[in-house]
């Protein structure tokens, strides 16, 4: 059974700092890895999707990497801003036969202090 | 382009009742997935519908069911409600499915069971 872990559960940084969020998964047979952010009382916003054949994806100040062999993914946020404060979740796409689903980590709650 | 719309936003029910939640996907999206989010279990996959057929299913009891209409709108039904069903229910849509495409989430329906 795929398990996805995110450490730390919460992180507080001063504005302008570069930071890394970690995600680990137990089943290296994932077909993709997605990063989302969730604001309080809201749904999830897709940030980056890395296919299993890729090593990383970039969007603006965000960069996500995927290392299937070690079962790890990282989300790098450059020059953090107070507006980046949210809960960040990673999700591994797994397949069992023809069935497919996303397995989510429990998230890292990020606070960027002005 | 309008996003994913979920109705209602809030719902209060009592044990033993049943409830129906609605999700309207982004125009042109044919896949709709449903998730349950609770503080204890995090985000868990319920099921995915594609072209009016259930394509994937998570590990939830048969009390949880759904359907999809020809216009891709989807409903989720929970019968014989239990206290543990209190949660934020999220739906997500994508063009072709949860395989290799970003999922676009609605803001969810918060269900409280008294």
Essential attributes:
heterodimer, A: 114 residues, mainly beta, six-stranded mixed beta sheet, five-stranded antiparallel beta sheet, 11 strands, 0% helix, B: 114 residues, seven-stranded mixed beta sheet, four-stranded antiparallel beta sheet, 53% strand
Question: Can you tell me about this structure?
Answer:
The complex is a heterodimer of chains A (114) and B (114). Chain A is mostly beta strands and 114 residues long. Chain A is built from no helices and eleven strands. Chain A has strands spanning 4-7, 10-14, 19-25, 32-38, 44-51, 56-59, 62-67, 72-77, 86-96, 99-104, 108-113. In chain A, the strands form two sheets. In chain A, strands 2, 4, 5, 9, 10 and 11 form a six-stranded mixed sheet that branches. A five-stranded antiparallel sheet of chain A has the order 1-3-8-7-6, with no helix packed on it. Chain B is mainly β and 114 residues long. Chain B has strands spanning 5-7, 10-13, 19-24, 31-38, 42-50, 53-57, 64-68, 74-78, 87-94, 104-105, 109-113. Chain A binds chain B through residues 31-32, 34, 36, 41-46, 49, 51, 89, 91, 93, 99-107, and chain B through 4, 6, 33, 42-45, 48, 56-58, 90, 92, 97-108.
Show the helix and strand layout.
The complex is a heterodimer of chains A (114) and B (114).
Chain A: E1 4-7, E2 10-14, E3 19-25, E4 32-38, E5 44-51, E6 56-59, E7 62-67, E8 72-77, E9 86-96, E10 99-104, E11 108-113
Parallel strand pairs in A: 2-11
Antiparallel strand pairs in A: 1-3, 3-8, 4-5, 4-9, 6-7, 7-8, 9-10, 9-11
Chain B: E1 5-7, E2 10-13, E3 19-24, E4 31-38, E5 42-50, E6 53-57, E7 64-68, E8 74-78, E9 87-94, E10 104-105, E11 109-113
Parallel strand pairs in B: 2-11
Antiparallel strand pairs in B: 1-3, 3-8, 4-5, 4-9, 5-6, 7-8, 9-10, 9-11
